[in-house]
Amino acid sequence: MDDLDMRIAIRRLATDTSGVAAIEFAYVAPIFLFVAFGGIEVADFAFTHMQLSQITASLADNAGRVAMNSDLAEQSVHERDINELLAAAKMQGDRLDLGQNGRLILSSLQVNEDGGQWIAWQRCAGALGGSSRFGDEGTGAAGTGFAGVSIDGRTLKATAGSAVMVAEIRYRYTSKFPLTPNAAKEISYAVAFPIRDHRSLAGLINTAPTVTPSSCG
């Protein structure tokens, strides 16, 4: 090939744009996919937060209503009632596989004999494990050293003759796209509702047909 042919070949190569689109797509595609998957992940993460918040509020609210519309002057709360509440919460979180990836904790905050706050009973469900951020069952049983439960900067206390139902959820969120910022996070919520009607505060009872309590141990 002489010099003229070489110059012609170089000129043609310099002006050839037939492969530009493919090269540009090869550069842009990874960024585009990351942005697209990231958007999907952010939406799913936000929806998961919303769903867990609603489940926690529903659990506390339903626990506060257990004794409503009873003809008895003082309704007892049964272990089976609490088991059903926890089972219903897990069903609400079925999309999240809450039973395997989460921890549900329901506590009864009451006033002890010394006028202080205490966690009279506590029940749990979910395979994630872990303890309540507020303390285990029996915390504050005597004295006035236990101040109550603090949620979003507010300390909640039970009043004499009543109780506050405190629901907590801890959830292990695993990203569908491991390279996104939310690849692995733990989400937690806590909500409290006072009981709505007269209720025996002597503890949960387990009459026939008996059930296995949802203990936190």
Protein model, in words:
The chain is α+β, with helices and mostly antiparallel strands. Helices cover 35% and strands 22% of the residues. It contains 4 helices and 6 strands, in the order ααααββββββ. It has helices spanning 3-15, 20-64, 79-92, 98-101; strands at residues 102-111, 117-125, 149-151, 154-156, 164-174, 184-194. The strands form 2 sheets. Strands 2-1-5-6 form a 4-stranded antiparallel β-sheet. A two-stranded antiparallel ribbon has the order 3-4. A hairpin with a 2-residue loop joins β3 (149-151) and β4 (154-156). α2 runs antiparallel to α3. It is elongated, with a radius of gyration of 29 Å. The model has no long low-confidence stretch (mean pLDDT 85).
Q: Output the structural class.
A: alpha+beta
Mean pLDDT: 85
Computed Rg: 29 Å
User: What is the general shape?
Assistant: elongated
Largest sheet, spatial ordering of strands: 2-1-5-6
Measured by DSSP, the beta-strand proportion falls in 15-25%
Specify the helix fraction band. 25-40%
Number of helices: 4
The ordered string of helix (H) and strand (E) elements is: HHHHEEEEEE
Low-confidence stretches: none
- Give the terminus-to-terminus CA distance: 86 Å
The number of strands is 6
Question: What composes the largest sheet?
Answer: 4 strands, antiparallel
